[in-house]
Specification:
With 89 residues, the protein is mostly helical. It is built from 4 helices and 2 strands. It has a two-stranded antiparallel sheet.
């Protein structure tokens, strides 16, 4: 019976560790774009990104906005920076 409890505990530890890595990575990505986030909401809007990239089109912004919510999250900013689509700060 004791071995039945090891797997759920291991799973919980693994999930917690993965979550910490994801949150930490997201924070780093957003930190790089922090100066662009002028309203301080933790997201980057099309208008905010235009200050960094004046030639950016709405279509290009929409391509970066993976969840199509009209804003770039830390993960989306990080992915765009990693892909070289926006400058890393």
């Amino acid at each position: 019976m004791r071995s039945e409890f090891k797997t759920p505990r291991l799973a919980a530890v693994t999930i917690a560790g993965a979550f910490a890595v994801l949150v930490g990575g997201a924070s780093l990505a957003m930190g790089q774009a922090e100066s662009v986030d002028t309203d301080g909401d933790g997201m980057v809007s099309f208008a905010e990104l235009l200050t960094l990239m004046p030639a950016l089109t709405e279509e290009e912004f929409q391509a970066l906005d993976a969840d199509a919510d009209g804003l770039l999250s830390a993960d989306e900013v990080g992915a765009a920076e990693d892909a070289g689509l926006i400058p890393a700060g």
